[in-house]
Amino acid sequence: MREVALVGAGMTRFAKHLDRSMKDLARESIDNALRSANINASALEAAAVGNAMAGLITGQECIRGQVVLREMGIGGIPVINTENACASAATAFHIAWLYVASGMYDVVLAVGMEKLFHQDKSKSFEALGSAIDVELMQQTLEQMKTATNDGGEDAGAGKSRSMFMDFYADFARAHMREYGTTKEHFAKIAAKNHTNGSLNPHAQFQTPRTMEDILASPMIADPLTRMMCSPIGDGAAAVILTSAERAKQYTAKPVYVRASVLGSGKDRKPGEPEVTERVARKAYEMAGLGPQDIHVAEVHDASAPAELIIYEELGFCKHGEGGRLIDEGATLLGGRLPVNPSGGLLAKGHPVGATGVAQIAEIFWQLRGEAGKRQVQGAKVGLTENGGGMLRGEAAAVAVHILTV
Amino acid sequence: MREVALVGAGMTRFAKHLDRSMKDLARESIDNALRSANINASALEAAAVGNAMAGLITGQECIRGQVVLREMGIGGIPVINTENACASAATAFHIAWLYVASGMYDVVLAVGMEKLFHQDKSKSFEALGSAIDVELMQQTLEQMKTATNDGGEDAGAGKSRSMFMDFYADFARAHMREYGTTKEHFAKIAAKNHTNGSLNPHAQFQTPRTMEDILASPMIADPLTRMMCSPIGDGAAAVILTSAERAKQYTAKPVYVRASVLGSGKDRKPGEPEVTERVARKAYEMAGLGPQDIHVAEVHDASAPAELIIYEELGFCKHGEGGRLIDEGATLLGGRLPVNPSGGLLAKGHPVGATGVAQIAEIFWQLRGEAGKRQVQGAKVGLTENGGGMLRGEAAAVAVHILTV
């Protein structure tokens, strides 16, 4: 397979964009990505488009990417529409990478986009509920319709984010029982990410928070307070991929894709590693690198405990030592391995089908030294981890990417 | 890129399967494909899954493939869910091909699946309506809800299949005006496909029809009678891909993928070829073959006039000569270039997200000499053309594949 490089990235601010369409958001991100790569849209040879929920929210299924791209004059090229729940955008990136790595195309767009806010909130929550097996979970949808949080910072107490937060609360409690992890550990992670988000103009929430702020926010599902849960949001992110040999035509600072691995959950045998760990191992092997080589990571902190457990699954520390890692400050901006300098899903926001490409965009900027106030000094190797959906206790889809300059 | 081979194929009968779930249909097709390849499910390294409309019909979005595969014990592998309207399954096949061609994986499943019939018919038609730009066409959806055809052979006169048939009727009338094509030409094509379908145990309609039968069936949108329009249906199809070098491990009769090309519509400049023609040219170039080399083809006859126009776009004859081609009997079973020996969308049926893989499966059987009563004698080179969606007068997605033994 050919070596693949990123030469441009763009994204919208993640936010509640009630007045903007998905087309409008996607256009902004694609325009920015093209501009940053000094590439005209006519140079694009193919596109992979991630979106999780437009079908259920707007009724637009089937050709979501073409509808968005034709509106901005991009036509004729192969367009692959893909969805993998919260990992839809990383899956789109993986396909775009495959197009270039295979030698099939030289200049490929990957875009992730989502418009979750709707005047009728029940639509947003019904869509989120489709990231599980809907036949098995019909009753859960009914509960969700009556217990919603609109993601605003002023939402009232006692509202449930979605049944995903119940899953996360279960995982969190199990980790606390097994390893002595505390809610303060989770609060430290959330405080880190909210504080990082305050340095990121793309973030949905830009208010720095302390551990005390996090613990004082309303309880969603014990031990999760609202600020430990990612909000819903609207937004889009886009990147341009090309072959390593062509990359220098477009930029003096290409970012190389060293590993692109997608996996899904399964019915594990006793002792088998969890899906994120399995996918990460393959990614490290593909890159010829290990967790000790990573300088910066963007991971799927749909909840604060998820980030703590992901530290362990990615090998940033041993199993059970995620709490110690955050206590040591290792994953803070300025620590030895900053995680979610962008603010992560907790503060940057989580427009579902946009998140995976936004993570890649953040690492692109970090490795090029273009991340502004949230820059990780000297970062040369970055990792992204994007997870989505839920089936029988494992994520339905997980994608890990490793990038270097 | 590596050479890719097909080693197994399976499908359900296409039909109105009101009593069967999409999971159940997909399982049957995958089981059959694995069995025909002598491959255990545990050997699968990745899967690409095409489905167009489950989100709007069943509420299952996001992880459609995982939900189906986990149910049959297939987990852990990368699962790429893709949709491209009526070309969803060919897009899934294209991704599966890319996985093998790139060298990323050796044994990959491509599956297309659709469950369109629903107790509430308005759901089926709303879903079909999402294959266009829904913002622009909201009003058309309203029309469709009041004018439906359930695809049964006994449906009443005057019911409209969907607004796609209005598009097809427009194209048909333009062709008649420009080239002197007649409704009898379209009727001959429909009679051919219904008669072919009568030889195919997988076909939704298995009654042979004459040109007179076709012309006597109820008018849908002049010149289209109901038997010139594909029905809606339920079904699934699956194939197993591997590298050419590994293929002989599994079968003495591998079928090789010589070209896999996807494209989309665009705003054409005057004189530019239409999307199907552009995609076909690239496919011929990739295969190092031309239309004169094709022995059998499965094409997207969503309506009978569509097949006639596709003859021209694929280069089976010159522009304007599609009518002459069917008059000569060239595309009949027994003709020099049989088209849609399976019965095509008109008679085999058109469960949207299953069609593209079912076309590939048919060519697989034809090239291996396993097509029973509908066998094209001596077929060594086959082509499939699968189109989907509509944007500003061109198909939103078209995929052409060329296969050989």
Q: What characteristics describe this protein?
A:
nine-stranded mixed β-sheet; Peroxisomal Thiolase, Chain A, domain 1; 15 helices; alpha/beta; 2 domains; two-stranded antiparallel ribbon; homodimer; 405 residues
The CATH topology of the largest domain in chain A turns out to be Peroxisomal Thiolase, Chain A, domain 1
The helix/strand series of chain A, from N terminus to C terminus, equals EHEHHEHEHHHHHEEEHEHEHHHHEE
Question: Globular, elongated, flat, extended or rod-shaped: what is the shape of chain A?
Answer: globular
Question: How far apart are the termini of chain A?
Answer: 19 Å
* Secondary structure: helix percent of chain A: 25-40%
% residues in beta strands of chain A: 15-25%
Radius of gyration computed on alpha carbons of chain A = 19 Å
Strand order of the largest sheet of chain A: 3-2-4-7-1-8-11-10-9
Poorly predicted runs of chain A: 139-161
Describe the structure.
2 copies of one chain form a homodimer. In chain A, helix 1 crosses helix 3, helix 4 (88-101) packs across helix 15 (355-367) and helix 8 crosses helix 12. Chain A has a 9-stranded mixed β-sheet with strand order 3-2-4-7-1-8-11-10-9, sandwiched between helices. A two-stranded antiparallel sheet of chain A has the order 5-6. Chain A is globular and about 55 Å long. With 405 residues, the first copy, chain A, is α/β, with parallel strands linked by helices. Mean pLDDT of chain A is 90; it is low at 139-161. The first copy, chain A, is 37% helix and 19% strand. Chain A starts with a strand and ends with a strand. Chain A has helices spanning 22-37, 54-58, 64-71, 88-101, 121-128, 138-146, 163-179, 183-197, 211-216, 244-250, 275-287, 304-313, 322-327, 344-347, 355-367; strands at residues 4-11, 46-50, 79-83, 107-115, 219-221, 224-225, 234-243, 255-263, 296-298, 381-391, 394-404. Chain A has 15 helices and 11 strands. Chain A has 2 domains: 4-118 and 234-257, Thiolase/Chalcone synthase (Peroxisomal Thiolase, Chain A, domain 1, 3-Layer(aba) Sandwich); 151-230 and 259-404, Thiolase/Chalcone synthase (Peroxisomal Thiolase, Chain A, domain 1, 3-Layer(aba) Sandwich), CATH 3.40.47.10. In chain A, strand 10 (381-391) and strand 11 (394-404) form a beta hairpin. Chains A and B meet through helix 2, helix 3, strand 3, helix 4 and strand 8 of A and helix 2, helix 3, strand 3, helix 4 and strand 8 of B.
